[in-house]
User: What shape does this take?
Amino acid sequence: MEIKKLAVCGKGGVGKTTFSSVLSYVLARKGREVFAIDADPNPTLAEALGIPDHILADITPIAEMTELIAERTGARPGEYGSFFKLNPRVKDIPDRYAIRYRDIHFLMMGATKKAGQGCACPENTMIKALMSYLIVKEKETVVLDMVAGTEHMGRGTAASVDVMLIVVEPGTRSIKAAKQFHRFARDLAISKICFVANKVRSEKDELFIKKQMLGLDLVGSLPYSDSIIEGERGGIAIYDSDSEYREEVSRILERIGVR
Assistant: This one.
């Protein structure tokens, strides 16, 4: 099976966006047509990709595209309780609204306001429909930088993800959260679930993670990097900041079967 739909999740602060950005560029360098999707309510993937501020200023999250949502669903964002289409047309959105930068197609989903356990609102319906299209029907490679869970995906959509990569750092809380994400991913019938160690400073850190993740599929260890921190401060794409990190991401892709 060719791996084309990759979802990345992890506890806040573990570096999933850093990993997602480099993953996207490495896949593009392999000749893939890549859609990098920021599905985190606190979006920072664009910055990690090194997209300049003057381009960022023109990016509107899908959840905030009032006119588009009204056109496709029949209701405006925030109109709770109103009637709207549950299967809006989204096929044209990736090509029409994605920002192309350095061979990456970038889309920002944006945050939706929740009501109770979910959000019966047009903007959330729009995002879920778009996520489903990207994962189930879009033919190109898709990298999803997810919020900790997979709230934008229904069970059927999640089951179409080729691999869930859960990022973990050498800390007890991170590992506990990662195991919870693993159980959640299994419940959603995601067939291939792997773990990626990040911010590894020493052999001691690596051994700690390996011991805690015993019996689980740990596919790589990414180094703690001062170069990445400096690069972020300068607005440099993380892919360009640290060759060791970039090469380990390439090896991780090989280990999960991406050539």
Remarks:
- Confidence is low (pLDDT under 50) at residues 114-118.
